[in-house]
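Standup notes
- HV: blocked on the assembly model, inputs below
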Amino acid sequence: MIGDIMTSLWAILPVIVLALWACVLLLVDLWLPKDQQGSQQGESNSPITPLLAALGMLTSAAIVIARIGQPTMGFGGMMMADGFSHFICLLLLASGLVTIGLSHDYMKRLGIARGEYYVLLMFSLSGMMLMSMSADLIMVFLSLELLSIPLYVMAGIATPRPSSEEAALKYFLLGAFASGFLVYGIGLVFGATGSTSLQQIVAVVQSGNYNLALILGGAALIITGLGFKVAIVPFHMWTPDAYQGAPSAVTAFMSVGAKTAGFAALLRVFVLAFPAFSADITPVLWGLAALTMVLGNFAAIAQRNIKRLLAYSSIAHAGYIMMALVPYGQDGLSADSVASALFYLVAYAFTNFAAWAVVIALEQAGEKGLELQDYAGLGRKHPALAAVMAVAMLSFTGVPPTLGFVGKFYLFRTVLEGGHVGLALIGVLTSLVSAFYYLRVIVVMYMQEGEPEARREPWLQAMAYGSAIGVVALSIFSAPLLFLASQAVLKLF
Amino acid sequence: MLQDYLPIVILVLIATGMAGLVVLLGHLFGPRRPSARKAQPYESGMRPIGPGTRRMPIRFYLIAVLFILFDIEIVFLLPWAVVFKKLGLFGVAEMLVFILILLVGYVYAWKKGALEWE
Amino acid sequence: MLPIEYYTGLSVILFTLGALGVLIRRNALIIFMSIELMLNSANLAFVSFARSYEGMSGQIFVFFVIAVAAAEVAVGLALIVAIFHTKRNIDVDQINSMKG
């Protein structure tokens, strides 16, 4: 029995390290000297906490890297540390590190630097990593909550600023609403099959001894619950407000981390447990993907606030990733489907962080500097930052040579192989529509006159340039990345 | 099977009958001289101070939330206690880890001054 | 023993009431209570299914849902109190400073 427990703990060691590190960091931060002159109570300008947090993430990442190629299973099949989870975990840990780089000076500048912020970041990150490993619906629910609850607090960390509180409340209420759907969906699947373990669900489905109506209802509710988290239409209502009101660094993390984890869970649950029902589920996914792409892109056109624009853009990109999920149940295509979704998640993460780094650099106290017009003249005054933003916008649109283009290429290929020509067509057309508002940002930056002010903070600039270089460089050498993604296919042990 | 409930039915009937009888007798024979003082919520002579739905100090809320958080651990402790002997040393170690994690939260709340009234 | 449909039927009714409550009511606290109702209807479904399958796993799930709901309550109430502190109001229709 002790041997079993050791293998189980060994399987989730990266998460254990991260979570324990966060617990210890919470205590360490309490005894660190606080800045007495800080404008707000509890404000800390000590660089030790973010450094320690980054160190924890690096340790966890080192463990994940050391394990690549050695799939393990723990807790009686509840947790799977396989290629898929390794890929997602590394992406998430990298996002966490970038978020620390984006946050450090930004939080100080806004007067909301708190040690707890980094602890919450680490807790949320461990929830996301657990989510990519969960092979049991109970674990999907628990890790979803572990990732969401710290995010609610992080969205509201700029309290008493009303917009931040509002963002937190909306994110919280709709997030909790979504978990209600998820729990009930899990309940229905449990009622249909008598188990919450993905392996046993598959076994029951193969034996034919299950209730079809209950399992389809459960799958629909699970799509709803996770759909809220990854912001697909029609479950996206919270996204613009939450993204606009939350501190920009939190929004950057939220948009990448929560989406990655949510899609990881969707992919694992649907590819592993429900391939037998693809005839019924695929049309639903088709409709959701099409609706999300159309609505996200068209709503983004009307936006003048850059944070809101990026929020609608993130909704639209959830639609593109959803597209990869559509042919999940077709023979021989599920591997391609997973690989292209993973690749697109990486592309989205890099591009998104590049864009948000520029937004953070231009944001002024009191939520100023966030309108599209505030970007006028950026090309002349801060050519490097403008170049980063331009690369991000081109990558969002899907113009070569950027990661966004390669990502969309693999996505459309998967969808076409699945025979969904109509969906691919919608994807291409909405990409054209999206070019309108993405290129408008570039036009404003380079063609219009203005005097934008940007911060020169070393870490922030490093993250901005790093992400932008990644977007271009990885697109040229995309083959190894796609190889890694295709190694990460899902299979049952 | 329904006959088993007969004594209970009889008891209920007698109890409600007695209560009704007492109320009825009081109603028939009791004198009634209402006054403003008697119409007040407390008839013990105390003069009520302020409205009944007073606002509570916000500190109660903090204590209450902390109580909920630390109280809910019972949900895991109780089933654990039931199978305590079967789990053996492993169970003790496992619960120790659980309590330690809670302790981290407790120390945090304490150090932040959430438990102080002033 | 009552047939399982009675329990699942009740849980479906409770879940629908909770979901409608979230969509119709405008007070943040009431919305939150409706969400709790949804979670508890799921608990009822779990317990009744667990009984019909004569296994324990469904009941274990309920423990986790209860514990998670408590954690959500703590965060949610803190947010609502913070909003009330700045706005003196927790009507979600009044809380709409952002437009677009």
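- HV (later): unblocked. The longest strand of chain A covers residues 72-74. Chain A touches chain C through 44 residues (CB under 8 Å).
- Next: hand off to the docking folks.
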